[in-house]
Write a structure and sequence with these properties.
The protein is an all-alpha fold and about 250 residues long. Helix content is about 65%, strand content about 0%. The radius of gyration is 19 Å and the shape is globular.
C-alpha cells in the first residue's frame, strides 16, 4: 500500500494527483494514530507507529524532490501538502512526535527537513518565478524574453506572494508542532551534527532568517526578509528554547 502511495506522490505526476496523494497519506496516518491510541502497547500499535513514520517520511521526501526543479515545483501541492500535515499535527488523538521525531529514530525527519527548507529559503520567490515562467512558456509557447511587460509584472508579483504564503505556512506548521510538544512536556532530541531533518538543523535555519542569504540564483541579489518572517523566527526560537532537551544544547 505504501509503495502505491509513493508512486502517486512523485514529481512525475500532475499537481492534483500529488496533492490527493498527500491527503491520502495523512488520512492513513490518522487511522494509524487512532489505532495506537485505542490499543497502546500492542503489536498492532507498534506496527501502526512504524507505518505512520514511514508514511510521513515518504510524503516529506516527495515534497523535497519536487521543490528542486521549476518543472515540478507546484504552489498548489506545497500549500495543500502542508495543510494536510497540519491536520495531523492538530488532531487531538494524534501525537505529532510519531510523525516528525519519534523516540529512538536515528534518521532525520523528511517532513521537518522540508518545512525547514521552505521557511529558511530566502530565494523561494525566484524558484516560484522560474516555475511560473516554465508554466507560461509550456502553455503559450512564448519564450520568456518575449513576455509583455504586464505578464512579467504579474509573474513577479505572483511569485513573491506564493513564496510569502509558503514560508508563512511552513513556519506556522512547525510552530504548531513545537507548541504541542511543549504542552505535552515531551523530550526533544538534539543532534549536534545538524543533519537535515533534525532539531539542530531547524534551530540554525531559523536563526539564518535574521540575516540576508548569499544569492545563488540569478539575479544575484536577495530581497530583504519581510517583517512577518522575522516575527515567526523570533517566536520559533522562543518556543525552541523552552522545550525539554533543547535549552542546554544550542549555545
Amino acid at each position: 500500500a505504501l509503495e502505491r502511495l509513493v508512486s502517486f506522490c512523485g514529481a512525475v505526476n500532475s499537481p492534483p494527483t500529488r496533492a490527493a496523494a498527500q491527503a491520502l497519506g495523512v488520512h492513513l496516518a490518522l487511522r494509524c494514530a487512532k489505532l495506537m491510541r485505542n490499543s497502546p502497547g500492542t503489536a498492532a500499535a507498534h506496527e501502526a507507529g512504524s507505518f505512520l513514520w514511514k508514511t510521513f517520511q515518504q510524503l516529506g521526501a516527495a515534497q523535497l524532490e519536487a521543490c528542486n526543479k521549476p518543472q515540478s515545483l507546484s504552489y498548489m501541492v506545497t500549500v495543500s501538502g502542508i495543510s494536510a500535515w497540519r491536520v495531523f499535527l492538530l488532531c487531538p488523538y494524534a501525537n505529532p512526535q510519531d510523525a516528525i521525531c519519534p523516540p529512538g529514530k536515528e534518521e532525520g525527519s523528511k517532513v521537518l527537513e522540508y518545512l525547514t527548507v521552505i521557511l529558511a529559503d530566502q530565494e523561494l520567490y525566484k524558484r516560484y518565478h522560474a516555475a511560473l515562467e516554465h508554466a507560461e512558456t509550456s502553455t503559450t509557447g512564448t519564450e520568456k524574453n518575449n513576455f509583455v511587460v504586464m505578464k512579467s509584472k504579474q509573474i513577479r508579483e505572483e511569485s513573491e506572494q506564493r513564496a510569502h504564503v509558503s514560508r508563512a505556512m511552513a513556519c506556522s506548521t512547525v510552530l504548531v508542532f513545537l507548541r504541542r510538544t511543549l504542552l505535552a512536556g515531551q523530550q526533544m532530541p538534539w543532534s549536534s551534527l545538524q543533519a537535515p531533518g533534525t532539531m539542530g538543523a531547524l534551530f540554525w535555519a531559523v536563526t539564518s532568517i535574521f540575516r540576508t542569504a548569499t544569492p545563488t540564483i540569478e539575479p544575484l541579489f536577495v530581497k530583504p526578509t519581510p517583517p512577518f518572517m522575522a516575527m515567526y523566527a523570533a517566536e520559533l526560537l522562543h518556543v525552541l528554547l523552552h522545550l525539554k532537551g533543547m535549552a542546554k544544547q544550542p549555545a
